[in-house]
From TrEMBL:
This is Isocitrate dehydrogenase [NADP]. Binds 1 Mg(2+) or Mn(2+) ion per subunit. The keyword NADP applies. It comes from Pseudooceanicola nanhaiensis. It catalyses: D-threo-isocitrate + NADP(+) = 2-oxoglutarate + CO2 + NADPH. GO terms for molecular function: isocitrate dehydrogenase (NADP+) activity; metal ion binding. Substrate binds at S135, A136, V137, N138, P139, V140, L141, R142. SUPFAM superfamilies: Isocitrate/Isopropylmalate dehydrogenase-like (SSF53659). It comes from the Bacteria. GO terms for biological process: glyoxylate cycle; tricarboxylic acid cycle. Keywords: Glyoxylate bypass, Magnesium, Metal-binding, NADP, Oxidoreductase, Tricarboxylic acid cycle. Its EC number is 1.1.1.42. InterPro entries: Isocitrate_DH_NADP_mono (IPR004436).
Amino acid sequence: MAEPNTPDIVYTKVDEAPELASASLLPIIRTFAAAAGVSVGTKDISLAGRIIATFPEHLTEAQRQPDDLAELGELVKTPEANVIKLPNISASVPQLVAAVKELQAQGYALPDYPESPSTDEEKAIRARYDGIKGSAVNPVLREGNSDRRAAVAVKNYAMANPHRMGEWTSDSKTRVASMSKGDFFSNEVSATLDGAAKAKIVLETADGETVLKEGVSYPAGTVVDATFMSARALDAFLADEIEKTKAEGTLFSLHMKATMMKVSDPIIFGHAVKEWLKPVFEQYGDKLKELGVNPASGMGDLLERVKGEPEIVKAIEACRDQRPPMYMVNSDKGITNLHVPSDVIIDASMPALIRDGGKGWGPDNKQHDTNCVIPDSSYAPVYDEAIAFFKANGKLNPATAGTVQNLGLMAQKAEEYGSHPTTFEIPADGTVKMVLDDGTVLHEHKVEKGDIWRSASARKAPIEDWVNLAIERQKATGFRSIFWLDETRAHDAELIKMVKPILEAKGVADKFEIMAPREATRASLETITKGENTIAITGNVLRDYLTDLFPILELATSAKMLSIVKLMNGGGLFETGAGGSAPKHVQQLMEENHLRWDSLGEFCALGESLQFLADARNNEKARVLGKAVDAATQGILDHDRSPSRKVGEPDNRDSHYWFARYWAQALADQSDDADLAAHFAPIARALAESEAAITGELAAVQGRPADLGGYYHTDADKTAAVMRPSETLNAIIG
Ligand SMILES: NC(=O)C1=CN([C@@H]2O[C@H](COP(=O)(O)OP(=O)(O)OC[C@H]3O[C@@H](n4cnc5c(N)ncnc54)[C@H](OP(=O)(O)O)[C@@H]3O)[C@@H](O)[C@H]2O)C=CC1
Ligand SMILES: O=C(O)CCC(=O)C(=O)O
Ligand SMILES: [Mg+2]
């Protein structure tokens, strides 16, 4: 049961751009909801909030905060859950360290992040920090599978107002490079457990047996995979691709997900940094170690640490002259692809490059063809095939293209995104075995020192729920429905064995196709090119990748997506958009007080959340409120009230004014609830009459730096002052 004082709707407090937007939008939502007796509470899942909640014993009573994430983790397992989840930071080590430093400077006596822990105390602190690192929030809240699609109004708007797409030409040298052996894909083995089981993972070496992990438990029917990436094969592949890039005259780029694959991918990233600077590491390895360099933290951290070592700096420059030009995260500021592990996030980076006609930004601040290095070949074929398709057929036309919706297997830490506790960088040559409690060796691999071994799993109940959701959505839409499963991949073959009987038992097998990712990519692009629609029914990683790829091609951004998590115990989790927390937007706000964040994802989620509340609690006022939200969202689209990207033009705050105005107008105009109509009529009138005053007050603040009193842990009053600068609007909202 949820706590008796749980509000009707929980709105999450997050970080960066969406949190700034909340400072303006949430007061509006609360005021409107209160009129219908709907309470909206908040829970703090921000990076700073989670750090504070983790170390109470270091803080004063006044500084302490409850563990809101843990509370939400419980709430989502109850039928009462109704949570609006905004995107939060999934922190890399450099971000975590920066957040800790900021809090320390604000007087929070937090321990430093131990970069190389040696004492037990340091190891314990490090373990607590590591629990906050990477994608630490979503896996806790996602107790259901994922349904992401563009709302009809949003898709229609994108078709009527197509965004600019880069040109694709058949002579583009852009390509995807992946390993052909020794990667996670090639080494994968998988089995479905008949009964419930406990397992341990051990490493047998010449010196004996080391237990890597004990007490892993699986319910009956769990699909359990194991695989590894060979460090030796990875290094050889990276070295080869660096040379090939140079020969081809393209930019070198690496695409991965160090935030979400928080154990394996930073290690792979570290290999790339080391390979790139190979001569430097060969010559100065010991000195670099002494300076505390960890390649997995990126070139940015490395450059900072070698600042006082002119000889090493010179060697780095000499090495750079030998290398091909690198793809830049921010060419204006000299931030390269290998600077910070969290900066290149494949789900966003590859679609943006494909949308731009296969061009990445180079160190010369110009766009060039790019070698997109995606070491593991499990999902790389999606991008490879998309690139091949656009080279052959030219760019997609967003004015006529159909849509690709997604139904993703996500619940209960499904697949690779739940593999962190069972991922290991192998300390010595030997054999890794996964041994069940009855002594059965479920999986085993011969490995070498440095290999990255991991086990992932997917539970039966989420898999069944996912297939049933697919059946529901197919029936509701009639769209071409494709399970993106590769019968030649070990894990997928196990899933197919579960999927097919369910489809057959329900008599709907003929309504679904099953295709490997490459074929499914082609089929989906062909389908939408014809103006028809399709549902991609995918595992967890492809859920993540595709719900950026297709929205970015179809709508220019994934920020506008509807993202519903139907919680398995009956509650609702409404994620806003499918993108992230947009650090660039915060930078712009701080420099010129313009916030280009588009809250359309929040508007869509709010509408869904209110309708869900209406159904779950028979709350007719919530239904009226929710319907009016949808009308307001439509109004934003119809009248082009979304934020502009440029300073001096209407921004996020203006769009919230319009949202409030259209919402109030829709409530005043409806006839389902006379009290609400009467309550909102004067508000709608006041908002309309004050248009010039409000937009004038909002415009007046732009063009100068804005002070938020922090980055990760902003000052609430300062943020409110920045985000609610219109006294006229504030007086109406109250
Ligand atoms: N569900 C979650 O909690 C998620 C969290 N993240 C986290 O977010 C952080 C940043 O991730 P990153 O990959 O840079 O991706 P972002 O989605 O934050 O940013 C990529 C670009 O997408 C555009 N964009 C995204 N959202 C909006 C919006 N609402 N309105 C307008 N434009 C938008 C912006 O383009 P432009 O600048 O051109 O306007 C932005 O620069 C990371 O810490 C990451 O882990 C990422 C994905 C999901
Ligand atoms: O949890 C994260 O770090 C990112 C999540 C994400 O990218 C997504 O769900 O689309
Ligand atoms: Mg994503």
